[in-house]
Design a protein that fits this description.
Length: about 700
C-alpha cells in the first residue's frame, strides 16, 4: 500500500456500484442503516439476569457508548418453554428499554439452541456423529440440518419473532441462528442419509454418472442402487474422497437451506430489515462462505484470536480481509470478538493492556463498520463464565471496562469513516472446496495444509502493508496487479481459464506448489500435474518429493536469472521435480531430492507473467519471492517501521490512514493530517505510540499527493 493517499474518487464506489437484486427490498450489501455510523456493542443475554441487573445493563451500556446489541441468540427455551407456549413478555420489556435508550437491536432467532423439550420430544432431530453415536442435549447446536421437523420448528419461532417485533423501533437487523456448521461437521442420521441421496441424484443425475465421478470402479465400490449409498461412516480405511467431498458440499447446502427457510419467513414480514448470520471467516473450514455471502444482506463475521499465537494479529487482519472480500468490499459487521481471554483454548491468555483497542480498530481499519463482542456482561454460570466480556465479573472498576468505554469513545470519534472502503492492489485466491479436498486423507504429505499455505503469503504481504482482497475462484481478478494462488489443490478448468486470461491481459500471477492437481471430483487431471495450470505456468511436474519431518532444502538464485536476491534461502515440507516448458528458472534447489532443478520460475505470457513456487520457503524466503513478484507487478508499496500495520480506507469525504503499532517503541510514519482519535494535527510525520493506534484524515491535494 503506498503511503501517499490516493486522489479522491469522483463518485462513491460503494452501494451504488452493487447491482440490484430484483424482488428484494434490501439491496445486497446495504449497510443496516440503524447500525450507523459504527455499531458498538455485543451479544446481550438478559435472560440470564434478574430485572434489577437488566436495568443496570441499559444504564451501563449508555455509559460505555454502546449503540447496538444482539439479543436472543440462544433464548429459545426462554421464549417457547413448551411447544406452542410463548413467553415474549421479558423480551418485550428488554427491547422497549433498549429502544428508549437509543440502542439498536440485532435480533437473533434462537434456533442454534433447540430447548430440551424439543430434543426429547423429537429425538430424531439430534445430530448423529460419523461413528453413529447421537450427540446429546445439555450443550447447544444439537440439531440435524436435514431434519424437516427441526427446520419447521426453527422457521416457526423465527416467524413468531418477526410477527411480534416487525414494527419495533429497536429492530435494526436480523441475526439468524449462530455460526452454522461450527460444531456439527455433518449429520449421519437416517434422514440426512435420505437427503444426501436426493442431493446426489440432483448433482449427478444417474448412478452411472455418480459411479464415474467417484471413481467407484476402484476398491469394488460400484453402486447398483441409490439405496446402497451411505453418508460417510467410520470405515476400515478412508472413505472414497469424492464421496466425502460431496458430503461436505451437501452439509454446507443443508445448513444454508436452514438459513434460507428462516430468512425467507422473516423477510416476508420485514422486507426492509437486513438479515444476516454470523460467519467464522478463517476459522470454520466447513462452510463455503462465498456461497453464504450470496444469501445474506450484509456479511457479519466473528473472530477470536488464538491467544498463544505471537502472530495472532496477522491472522486477525486476514480474517477481516476475508470478511470484507466476502462482502464485495463494502462495510461489514464484526459481530463478535473478545475483550480479553476466551474460555475454550488450552490456555486462555488475557489480552495485554491496549490489545483490545488494537484488535478492534484493526477490524475497523479493514472495513468493519461495527465492533461487537461476545458478550456484554460476563455470565456467572454456564459453560462460558470464564470468557471475557465488555462488563467483566469485577464490574466497572476493571481495566477491561475502562478499555471498553475508551473504545466506545474512539468509535464515536471515527464516525466520519463509516461507509469508506479499503482498496487493495493484491488479490489472493481463496477456496473452501479446495481446502476441504486438500485435507482429506492419503495426501502426499500431512504437512501441507491450506491455512498454512495462505497464511505464509498473507503474512509476508502484511509485513509490507500490502492490503489483500480475497478472490472467489472463477471471479474476474483483473483489477489486481498481482494475484496470489496458494496451493490450489482442486482447480477446475474454469478457474484455470480465468487465470490464463488474467495473465494474458497483463496480470502477474503467483502460484504455489500442489496446485492444479484434481478436478471437482477429486480426480487427478489427465496428463499429470499441474493439470489445467500447465500452460499458464509454462511447466509440468514429473514427481512430488515431499520432505521428511524437520528436513529442509535450500534455494539459490539461478545463475542467469535477473534477481536482487543473493541469499541462500531455506525451505521445508515440499520439493518437486519441475520441468520447464517456456518458464524461466529464477531460483533452483541447491540440495535435496531436486538439487539443481527449478524452485521458482517465471513464465511470460501475453502481456503478463505467471510465477510458480515449487516449495515452502521460510518467512524470509517468502519475503524474497514477493520482492521479485511485486516488483514485476509494479507494486512499490510503502514500508512502515517493523510491527506497524498501515491500512487505508477512503471515501469522497476523505482518505483515512490507520496505523496500528504492535511493537514496544513509539514511532513516526511519514505523512500528515488530522488525528481523528486525539484531534491533534500531524504536519510532518504521524506519531504512533508503542502499542497504540493512530487514525489520520490525510491531507491531500487535488492530484492526490500529501500536503507536502
Ligand atoms: C462463538 C459463539 C458465541 C460464544 C463465543 C465464545 O463465537 O458465537 O456464542 O460462544 O464463540 O468465544
Amino acid at each position: 500500500m503506498p503511503l501517499v493517499p490516493p486522489p479522491a474518487p469522483a463518485v462513491a464506489d460503494g452501494l451504488a456500484a452493487v447491482p440490484d437484486r430484483t424482488g428484494l427490498r434490501v439491496p445486497p450489501r446495504a449497510w443496516p442503516v440503524r447500525l450507523s455510523p459504527i455499531a458498538f456493542g455485543g451479544d446481550y443475554t438478559p435472560e440470564q439476569w434478574p430485572d434489577a441487573v437488566r436495568r443496570e445493563d441499559v444504564a451501563l451500556m449508555r455509559e460505555a457508548g454502546v449503540t447496538a446489541v444482539t439479543v436472543g441468540v440462544f433464548a429459545w427455551a426462554m421464549l417457547e418453554p413448551a411447544e406452542g407456549r410463548y413467553t415474549f413478555g421479558w423480551l418485550d420489556t428488554v427491547l422497549d428499554r433498549l429502544a428508549e435508550a437509543g440502542i439498536a437491536v440485532d435480533l437473533a432467532t434462537p434456533t442454534a439452541a433447540p430447548p430440551p423439550w424439543f430434543s426429547t420430544t423429537y429425538p430424531e432431530t439430534l445430530p448423529v456423529a460419523r461413528d453413529g453415536s447421537t450427540l446429546g442435549i445439555g450443550a447447544r447446536e444439537s440439531f440435524c440440518p436435514s431434519s424437516s421437523r427441526y427446520r419447521d420448528a426453527a422457521t416457526g419461532i423465527a416467524r413468531r419473532l418477526a410477527e411480534r417485533y416487525r414494527d419495533h423501533p429497536a429492530l435494526a437487523m436480523w441475526h439468524v441462528n449462530n455460526e452454522y456448521g461450527a460444531h456439527v461437521a455433518g449429520c449421519h442420521c437416517p434422514e440426512s442419509e435420505r437427503s444426501f441421496r436426493e442431493w446426489l441424484r440432483t448433482r449427478h443425475g444417474d448412478l452411472d454418472a455418480l459411479n464415474e465421478a467417484w471413481g467407484t470402479a476402484f476398491w469394488s465400490q460400484r453402486y447398483q442402487d441409490w439405496a446402497e449409498i451411505t453418508v460417510p461412516r467410520v470405515a476400515p480405511m478412508p472413505v472414497n474422497p469424492a464421496q466425502q467431498l460431496d458430503f461436505h458440499r451437501f452439509t454446507d447446502d443443508e445448513f444454508r437451506a436452514c438459513f434460507r427457510a428462516e430468512r425467507d419467513a422473516i423477510r416476508e414480514l420485514t422486507p426492509d430489515i437486513p438479515i444476516t448470520t454470523n460467519f467464522m471467516a478463517t476459522a470454520c473450514p466447513r462452510m463455503d462462505y462465498w456461497r453464504w455471502a450470496d444469501e445474506v444482506d450484509v456479511v457479519a463475521n466473528n473472530h477470536y484470536l488464538v491467544a498463544e499465537d505471537p502472530e495472532g494479529h496477522v491472522e486477525l487482519a486476514m480474517s477481516a480481509d476475508v470478511a470484507r472480500s466476502l462482502n464485495d468490499g463494502s462495510p461489514w459487521v464484526l459481530m463478535e470478538h473478545s475483550t480479553s481471554a476466551v474460555n475454550w483454548q488450552p490456555r486462555n491468555l488475557a489480552k495485554a493492556p491496549g490489545q483490545l483497542r488494537r484488535n478492534s480498530l484493526t477490524h475497523v481499519a479493514r472495513g468493519a463498520d461495527a465492533a461487537m463482542f461476545f458478550q456484554w456482561r460476563a455470565s456467572r454460570a454456564g459453560a462460558e463464565k470464564f470468557h471475557s466480556a465488555m462488563l467483566p465479573h469485577g464490574g466497572t472498576r476493571t481495566r477491561v471496562w475502562h478499555e471498553v468505554t475508551a473504545l466506545g469513545s474512539d468509535l464515536s470519534a471515527l464516525r466520519e469513516i463509516a461507509g469508506s472502503r479499503v482498496t487493495a492492489e493484491v488479490g489472493m485466491l481463496w477456496d473452501w472446496e479446495s481446502w476441504w479436498a486438500l485435507e482429506l486423507e492419503y495426501r502426499p504429505s500431512i504437512d501441507v495444509t491450506y491455512l498454512d499455505a495462505v497464511r505464509r503469503f498473507y503474512a509476508a504481504l502484511w509485513r509490507r502493508n500490502e492490503t489483500v482482497d480475497f478472490v472467489r475462484p472463477g471471479a474476474d481478478p483483473s483489477k489486481f496487479r498481482l494475484l496470489v494462488v496458494p496451493s490450489l489443490y482442486l482447480t477446475t478448468p474454469t478457474t484455470a481459464a480465468v487465470l490464463r486470461t488474467y495473465v494474458e491481459g497483463g496480470g502477474r500471477l503467483l502460484v504455489s506448489f500442489f496446485s492444479g492437481i484434481v478436478d471437482e471430483h477429486d480426480a487427478v487431471h489427465p496428463g499429470g500435474f499441474p493439470g489445467p495450470l500447465r500452460e499458464v505456468l509454462g511447466l509440468w511436474i514429473d514427481e512430488f518429493h515431499p520432505l521428511p519431518a524437520a528436513a529442509a532444502v535450500h534455494l539459490d538464485p539461478a545463475p542467469a536469472a535477473d534477481t536482487r536476491s543473493r541469499l541462500r534461502l531455506r525451505a521445508t515440507v515440499w520439493s518437486e521435480e519441475v520441468v520447464c516448458e517456456g518458464a524461466e528458472v529464477i531460483w533452483r534447489f541447491a540440495d535435496g531430492p531436486d538439487c539443481g532443478l527449478p524452485a521458482l520460475t517465471r513464465h511470460p505470457l501475453g502481456a503478463g507473467a505467471a510465477w510458480y513456487l515449487a516449495t515452502r520457503p521460510d518467512g524470509e524466503g517468502v519475503d524474497r519471492v514477493l520482492d521479485l513478484v511485486l516488483a514485476d507487478a509494479g507494486i512499490t508499496g510503502g514500508r512502515t517501521p517493523e510491527g506497524v500495520e498501515a491500512v487505508r480506507r477512503a471515501s469522497p469525504l476523505g482518505s483515512y490512514l490507520f496505523l496500528v503499532n504492535h511493537g514496544p517503541v513509539d514511532t513516526t510514519v511519514p505523512g500528515g493530517g488530522v488525528d481523528l482519535l486525539t484531534g491533534e494535527r500531524w504536519a510532518d510525520g504521524v506519531r504512533v505510540p508503542a502499542g497504540g493506534v493512530t487514525v489520520v484524515r490525510e491531507d491531500r491535494t487535488a492530484d492526490g499527493d500529501t500536503h507536502r
